[in-house]
Write a structure and sequence with these properties.
Elements (H helix, E strand, L loop, with lengths): L1 E8 L12 H14 L5 E7 L2 E8 L6 H20 L24 E7 L5 E9 L7 H9 L6 H4 L1 H4 L2 E7 L8 E7 L3 H8 L5 E8 L5 E5 L4 H5 L9 E5 L7 H5 L7 E4 L5 E4 L1 E2 L16 E10 L2 E2 L10 H20 L16 H9 L11 H5 L1
Parallel strand pairs: 13-14
Antiparallel strand pairs: 1-3, 1-4, 2-3, 5-10, 5-14, 6-7, 6-8, 8-9, 9-10, 11-12, 14-15
Helix pairs in contact: 1-2
The structure holds fructose -6-phosphate (F6R) and magnesium ion (2 copies).
Length: 377
């Protein structure tokens, strides 16, 4: 069985929480080149301030060596970030030392395991300034809504439906809490979970026709890991495509009507999920947003990654970007901090609001309620 692991971290960036330098990325790649001989392949890309490492191997998920390699690569990136005085150097490496597995240590992890098909096309998504639940709506639309994915109506194996494995991101006391729901039968219940993207995140999607894993999303919640704000949980996702699975066009279509997702400034606002191009020119420079999503298409060939294709480079997506920027500005500039402009107070990524509430505690006054009979007297 083949496993594709995508492990990502923000270990420092230039000019703010914007993007890493070329030297930082080169240091990450050098470690993979020097120590990654046991991999079949690797590929490194960036989205905003995040470095995303894709690794192809046959060691299965949660493998010590695979996770250690990513950790070592991020430590090398951190060294460069420190040397160059970059902002947030080592931000997502929450522990001083690696302990068997990067889960819980800060980096985001998404792993998918499958028998490589004769041709194995897939998409990788990386996002910045948002949360894992940002993928809830696009993945639900692509895998569960036949108004959009007509493959659910036209292709027998796709018509058999999919199993969504959803994680409860707030349940951290006694291990991970998961549920599996099948579409179409459990579609409404699935919607009820996914409508709450801060709490419920899709971890995997499996084909009911073949049992194969089709999609995987990173589901870490850094705040729950670290106990305090250390950056947003900028997620990654892998989606296998074509044949028995939705086509890349069906997977990408929902990004043309991008949802509002949590993130942008201080991880505490709502912004429009904004599809970006490959050239690295996109930085979250308007209100630390908009929340960015990059997509990369590839095939795997005997475990090796092909050259990347960037679907959002197509000129079609220029109009989507224009719309998304207009919607985000309109919303942000009209709404400010009020109501849905910011996330609900329990989700605010900084503690300042809670401190204000505490500081005001003694200044409230309470007038005893007057009963109607008291006023009659
Ligand atoms: C959001 C993010 C940024 C920072 C903001 C303030 O995920 O990373 O919006 O929260 O730029 O950053 P600090 O507190 O580091 O000055
Ligand atoms: Mg950062
Ligand atoms: Mg980031």
């Amino acid at each position: 069985m083949r496993t594709v692991s995508v492990i990502k971290a923000d270990v420092g960036s230039n000019a703010g929480h914007w993007r890493p330098t070329a030297e930082l990325v080169a240091a990450v790649e050098d470690v993979l080149a020097d120590e990654g001989a046991f991999l079949d392949d690797y590929f490194v890309f960036t989205v905003g301030d995040d470095v995303d490492i894709m690794m192809s191997h046959t060691r299965g998920e949660d493998d010590d060596d695979v996770h250690r390699l990513a950790w070592d690569a991020f430590e090398a990136g951190t060294e460069v970030a420190k040397e160059q005085g970059l902002y947030g150097a080592g931000q997502d490496l929450l522990e001083d030392a690696f302990a068997g597995n990067v889960r819980g240590l800060g980096p985001g992890v998404c792993e998918i395991t499958f028998e490589e098909r004769e041709a194995e096309p897939f998409l990788v998504f990386g996002a910045d300034k948002t949360e894992p639940g940002a993928f809830n709506q696009p993945l639900y639309t692509a895998f569960a809504d036949p108004r959009y994915t007509t493959g659910l109506l036209l292709k027998d194996t796709i018509h058999e439906g999919f199993t969504f494995r959803v994680m409860d991101l707030e349940h951290t006391d006694d291990g991970a809490r998961r549920i599996e729901l099948d579409v179409p039968e459990d579609g409404w219940d699935l919607t009820a979970l996914l409508m709450e993207p801060h709490r419920f995140g899709i971890e995997k999607i499996l084909s009911r026709a073949t049992g194969a894993e089709v999609a995987a999303v990173s589901t870490q919640k850094l705040r729950n890991v670290a106990g305090e704000y250390v950056g947003k949980d900028d997620p990654v996702a892998v989606v296998r495509t074509q044949a028995d699975f939705p086509s890349p066009g069906e997977i990408l279509q929902p990004y043309a009507t991008p949802p509002f997702v949590a993130g942008a400034m201080r991880g505490s606002h709502h912004g429009v999920f904004y599809p970006i191009q490959s050239d690295g020119g996109e930085i979250p420079s308007y209100f630390d947003g908009p929340p960015l999503v990059k997509a990369i298409g590839m095939v795997l060939n005997d475990g090796r990654f092909s050259e990347p294709v960037y679907p959002f480079d197509a000129t079609f997506w220029d109009s989507v970007r224009d719309d998304a920027a207009t919607r985000f500005r309109e919303f942000r500039e009209r709404q400010g901090a009020f109501g849905p402009g910011t996330v609900e107070t329990s989700e605010l990524e900084y503690g300042g609001w809670t401190d204000i509430m505490e500081s005001l505690e003694d200044r409230w006054t309470v007038a005893p309620e007057q009963s109607p009979s008291a006023t009659d007297d």
